[in-house]
Each structure stands twice: as C-alpha cells, then as structure tokens.
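batch job 7 of whatever, protein = Four helix bundle protein
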Amino acid sequence: MHTYSFEKLEVWQLSRAFRKDIYLLTTKFPKEETFGLISQIKRAVSSIGACLAEGSGKITSKDKAHYTNMAYTTTLETLNHLIAALDLDYITEEDYLKSRSKIENITTKLSGLRKAQLT
C-alpha cells in the first residue's frame, strides 16, 4: 500500500492523534451542544490534518505553505473552542492544559514546516 507524503509528516501524525483526543473529550460535553460547540470543535480539529493532506498535493511550495498556514489557523480555532469549553465547565482544567500542550507542539511544528516550505 502506498504511503502519501502527508502521512509521513510528524505534525500530521500528531494532528491525527489530537483529533482522536478531541473526539473523545467531546463525549463529556452536554448533549445540547451536539450541533453547537461539539460540531464546531470537531470540524476545526479535523481541518488540521485535512489541510496538511490537501496541501501536500499542491505543486508549488508557496501553495503548500498556504495550506500549512490554514492548518495553523484551524489549530488556533480549536484552541478557542477548548477555551470556551473550559469557561462553560464542559472540560476540566487538566483536560484543557493537556490539550493546550498538544496544540503548542502542533503549532510549533506547523510553523517550522511552513518556514521550510518557503525557503
């Protein structure tokens, strides 16, 4: 079976694991948030890896960097939703800090990837 270039990226692998973490975390949210915050955070966290996958198919480095930047912005969107979940007491401070640490790792790697793509 062929392995695509995005699957080899450490940051994509981290985003894949983080997506699973967030999906499991949202099971703690109230059911009335199913079409609200749960839906928003799941879309945002799923977009991180999706942007990396889509960008890997682009021809120019500039185009690839654009999609890496989009992955970065959706990572920040995910953080914003986690802050909302913390403020609403849907998640614990411990869950928030664990997720935030993973976000910081992902954004650092995305910044490095984007820089490499533009040089």
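notes: The mean pLDDT is 98.
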